[in-house]
Amino acid sequence: MEKGALRQQVLWIVRRLGEASTGQVLEEVRETQERDITVNTVQTVLNRLVDQGLLTRSGERRHYIYRAEPSDEAVKERASHAAAKLLSESGEKGLVHFLDTMDRLQPEAIGKLERLLAERRASEQRAKKGGGS
Predict the structure, then answer these.
(1) Which helix (H) or strand (E) covers residue 21, if one does?
(2) What is the CATH number of the domain that holds 17?
(3) Are residues 112 and 89 part of one domain?
(4) Helices then strands (H, E): number in the chain?
(5) Total structural domains in the chain?
(6) Which residue spans within the chain are E strands per DSSP?
(7) 75-85 pLDDT, tens per residue?
(8) Residues 37 and 10 in one domain
(9) Cβ of 82: how many Cβ atoms within 10 Å?
(10) 59 shares its domain with 78
(11) Is it the case that residue 17 has pLDDT exceeding 60?
C-alpha cells in the first residue's frame, strides 16, 4: 500500500458517510484492501486525523463517532501548502489539471470557485475606490 493511502482512504470514508464509527470505517477499508487491516490500525489512523484537526470525535471511548469537520486553521494550512506545492511544481499546467479534477469530483465546485473569485474581485474594487478617495 502506498504511504498515506490508508490515511486518505479513511478520510474519504468518513467524509462520504458524514459520520462513522471505527467499526464502520474498518468494514469499508477491509472491502478494498488486499491485506488484512486490524481495528488498531484503523483506530490509530482515526486518532491521528483527529490530532491533525481533520476529523472531530464525539462519544465515549470504544464508541467514538468521527466526523469530517476540520478546523479552519487545519483547512487553511493544508490548502496553502497544497496550492504552493502545486504552483511551484506544476505551474499553469497544474492549475488546469486541478480544475479538471475539481470538475470530475465535484462539478458544482467550479461554480463556487467562480462566485468566490467574483466576490473577491468586487471586494478589491470597493477597497480601491474607498482607498483612492
Answers:
(1) strand 19-21
(2) 1.10.10.10
(3) yes
(4) 5, 3
(5) 2
(6) 19-21, 56-58, 65-67
(7) 788 889 999 99
(8) yes
(9) 11
(10) no
(11) yes
Of 125, 98, 123, 128, nearest to 113 (Cα)? 98
- Verify that 57 and 86 share a domain, yes or no: no
Q: Largest alpha-carbon pair distance within the chain?
A: 67
| pLDDT digits 0-9 by tens, 29-67 | 999 877 789 999 999 999 999 998 889 999 988 899 999
Joined grid coordinates for residue 58: 464525539
* Rounded Cα–Cα distance for residues 28 and 6 (Å): 11
Q: Are 10 and 29 in contact (CB under 8 A)?
A: yes
Q: What is the C-alpha separation between 88 and 25, in angstroms, rounded?
A: 35
Domain that holds residue 92: 72-131
Q: Residue length, the chain? A: 133
Same domain flag for 14 and 51: yes
**C-alpha cell at position 82:** 497544497
Q: Report in angstroms the alpha-carbon separations of 47 from 26, 27, 112.
A: 14, 17, 31
